[in-house]
Amino acid sequence: MVKATILGAAGGIGQPLSLLLRLNKKIDELSLYDIVNTVGVSADLSHIPTPQLIKGYVPKDKSDNETIKIALQGSDIVIIPAGIPRKPGMTRDDLFKINAGIVKSLIHQVGINCPNAFICIISNPVNSTVPIAVEELKKLGVYNPKKVFGITTLDNLRLEQFLSDSLNNKVSTTDLYNDVLTIGGHSGDSIVPVINSWNKNFNDNESYDKLINRVQFGGDEVVKAKDGKGSATLSMATAAYRFVDNLLDAIKFNKIIKEVAFVKIDELETFKLPFFITKHTQYFSLPITIDQEGIKLVEFPGYLTEKEVLMTKHAVEKVKVDVSKGFNFVHGSKL
Ligand SMILES: NC(=O)C1=CN([C@@H]2O[C@H](COP(=O)(O)OP(=O)(O)OC[C@H]3O[C@@H](n4cnc5c(N)ncnc54)[C@H](O)[C@@H]3O)[C@@H](O)[C@H]2O)C=CC1
Ligand SMILES: O=C([O-])CC(=O)C(=O)O
């Protein structure tokens, strides 16, 4: 029996993600928690015929911890898209003031009620909300470095699609899924697209630089187009679904799977991570191998060009600053 819980399930990401997970046969029980509207969302989804149990939970008031307790108890996986999204002119870091507190309090409940769950954090700024989650779990004495993930899959989706666009769709995005990835963090130029041998398809620097920029600022493209009505939701729900569906193979069937996520690397088994990463940051988005117990290995992508190495070094500096912001939020002291 696999139970999955979404915290923030009634939102722009939460609703389409709930729909996708309602249709996933690997999930036996889907638990939808939000401070608004999940009873309606779950009633709606419950009319889709599947053997899956589904229930929506809304707390009675701010002091009601009983409802989230019931929503979380027995969860094998918890996905967190709770928090405010950007409006035009804002950076992801501008979300910190509100989302840091939301993530900290939700993770506190996760740590108390389902400490063994795999935790997937979507709420921005990911580079800081993941360290907040880790430090909160550590405070509770239940932190498992193998089971906390910041979801950066949308950057990978964008790279696959935008690279295919720049190659005039001559290559299928399925081929690119197996061949390209992003590493680093999840904000602006902390995102590092790694495109392997596809490099040789770019005859000029200008079109390559355009690709890099579009991946790094893909989120801004959507924020601008939505014009005050939020940020990426449908593509993000798809990205989270891809990650979670893959993770479910590890959880339910004990398969060994490959993913990319923003994780705390210094307490994990690693392979060929360069010193310029490990010396300066404890967190980075990198390729990982996962089984039923969680992360088995964190690796560095096989080959990077000189430019990709430079971008990675820059990303390390960016991530480091964002990580200490998250750490300080929980401890009130410098990392
Ligand atoms: N990791 C990534 O690649 C991406 C991350 N995001 C981030 O995901 C977050 C959510 O985005 P949207 O779904 O578009 O926002 P939204 O505002 O549509 O939905 C957020 C939901 O969280 C709920 N919520 C707020 N406080 C809560 C609490 N204490 N407990 C439970 N639920 C709570 C709200 O009621 C709302 O339903 C934002 O921070 C956004 O920046 C968005 C896109 C990509
Ligand atoms: O840009 C944003 O604020 C939302 C996000 O993280 C993304 O779309 O990658």
Question: What percentage of amino acids are in beta strands?
Answer: 15-25%
Biggest beta sheet attributes: 6 strands, parallel
Unreliable parts: none
Coarse shape: globular
CATH architecture of one domain: 3-Layer(aba) Sandwich
CATH class of one domain: Alpha Beta
Give the fraction of residues assigned to helices: 40-55%
Number of strands: 12
Major sheet: arrangement of strands: 3-2-1-4-5-6
Structural class, please?
alpha/beta
> What would the average pLDDT be, to the nearest integer?
96
Give the termini distance in whole angstroms.
40 Å
Order of helices and strands: EHEHEHEHEHEHHEEHHHEEHEEH
CATH level-four homologous superfamily name of one domain = NAD(P)-binding Rossmann-like Domain
User: Remind me, CATH topology of one domain?
Assistant: Rossmann fold
The radius of gyration over CA amounts to 19 Å
Number of helices: 12
Query: What small molecules does this complex bind?
Result: 1,4-dihydronicotinamide adenine dinucleotide, oxaloacetate ion
Keywords: NAD, Oxidoreductase, Tricarboxylic acid cycle
Protein name: malate dehydrogenase
InterPro entries: L-lactate/malate_DH, Lactate/malate_DH_C, Lactate/malate_DH_N, Lactate_DH/Glyco_Ohase_4_C, Malate_DH_type1, NAD(P)-bd_dom_sf
Organism: Pichia kluyveri (Yeast)
